[in-house]
């Protein structure tokens, strides 16, 4: 039961020829959806939205402003909040924009995608929320601005006529998704978190209306910080609980366990939780989920994903996303959300964001080891490097070999070092890609985009900068898209308490040592919740929500046939060299199933997506 939430629109920012009346239906049809029966058409503009939110679109006749809002905004102004409650978020946004203009974003929190057309000024404003929970894609074709929450819908507009973009296909294979601001379609872009676009007939201006503030409060008492944190955590969950039956994803990690405990407190009844297991060593974490469920007295449900479920989900995932999407954990996310829906749940709480704002990713600690080398004086490094790298027979001596590896990695600056183990760095690109495809792309652009996000952080601390980068790449471009789209496909809403604006602002007041100290992750977070979470949860090592696809693919089961068929088809497209695909399969079969299975999944999803989005590839 796919419950899509789609916003589509176009506006001619100066007088032009009439546009065919069926354009909105074409845009919605690109996502397999019906356009609403009541689209708004005023002159050379067409707007529509579909979703579960009431009053997602409004035209304020008094001010001449049109607004569409999807998501769950939170209004700081009591008067605006009251208007939103009475007339809908779109009506509230239209009126407040007429009153304060772009200062609207000082008062608008929560999750949202927003489009505002000011007929008096001849301008259109597009924006998304601070964390990138919602999306906004757009294309500018002369005076025409086309926009949607779907890149595929924008590409379907006849004035855009977007072909597939080779550069973005390369970036997909590098990042396992298409990172913003690019999309899979040439000429179509998407906004970054906290970004807005103001377009007029003459120009377009794009900027950030908010930036994460890193301002450690060195005078704060630890007990006061702990009290504030606990209060904000509870408030964040309260804001996401309403009359809809609400459940929670429960993996057994610190984030999902915290959400589970607070959901029970806020609702006054046992939290309804849903967990996924795998019959594969090293992947199943149901024991940790059970520890949390017992600790908080949750009403817990479990579901084991099998290879047959993965085979079922392969085409569904390729169809569901408007761009190629290669995060295999979309599969367990979908089945977890589907089971929740079958048990009457209409909204799920997810723990995404805790790692990126409180210091929970393992690489933060790991990179600190290499940063110590970067902190050495240039003179000392000039002495050490030749000594270690030129040591006689050093490759045969374990300590020297390790020292050489350390120096090689430490000599690469952040954020480039984070990609040291990227699949596209394992082999020469000429061995991976067809010559014509490789000649058409900028192979340095993925790292350039990462550097931009890393150095845009308003902090000189590597941990803060890595978290800022993960806010965009890991969270907005990847995890939030994974969870949101799979929950839509399963027929439930999803909400993210850890992305509450007040909670994020608080995280910026913590020092680096309160986030990561040596090998300790989430230092303050765990200390503040030490009497709330189970001890096993506090001490467990970090474990991702992975899928044992590679292990299952190595078996003679339901995945081999669709996998080999997809790889053979991809090898005929002029993107990836067939001999590389064969070698990848051989290495996967030679005892490294989990490792090489990741890239095989990414390639399979690309081929399946291309089959369902058949259009020319831009040269």
Question: How would you portray this structure in words?
Answer:
The chain has 619 residues and is an alpha+beta fold. The chain has three domains: 203 residues, 4-Layer Sandwich (Glutamine Phosphoribosylpyrophosphate, subunit 1, domain 1), CATH 3.60.20; 207 residues, 3-Layer(aba) Sandwich (Rossmann fold), CATH 3.40.50.620; 70 residues, no CATH class. Helix content is 45%, strand content 16%. It is built from 26 helices and 21 strands. Strands 2-3-1-9-8-11 form a six-stranded antiparallel β-sheet. Helix 12 crosses helix 14 and helix 24 crosses helix 26. It is globular. 48% of the residues are buried. The model has no long low-confidence stretch (mean pLDDT 92).
Question: What is the element layout, followed by pairings?
Answer:
Blueprint: E1 6-12, H1 23-29, E2 40-41, E3 45-50, E4 57-60, E5 65-75, H2 78-87, H3 89-100, E6 108-118, E7 123-128, E8 137-141, E9 144-148, H4 151-155, E10 164-165, H5 166-175, E11 189-190, E12 195-199, E13 204-208, H6 222-238, E14 246-249, H7 254-267, E15 272-278, H8 286-296, E16 299-305, H9 307-320, H10 330-342, E17 347-349, H11 354-358, H12 362-374, H13 378-389, H14 398-410, H15 429-432, H16 435-439, H17 445-456, H18 462-490, E18 493-495, H19 501-507, H20 512-515, E19 516-517, E20 520-521, H21 523-528, H22 535-539, H23 549-553, H24 560-570, H25 578-589, H26 593-612, E21 617-618
Parallel strand pairs: 10-21, 14-15, 14-17, 15-16, 17-18
Antiparallel strand pairs: 1-3, 1-9, 2-3, 4-5, 5-6, 6-7, 7-12, 8-9, 8-11, 12-13, 19-20
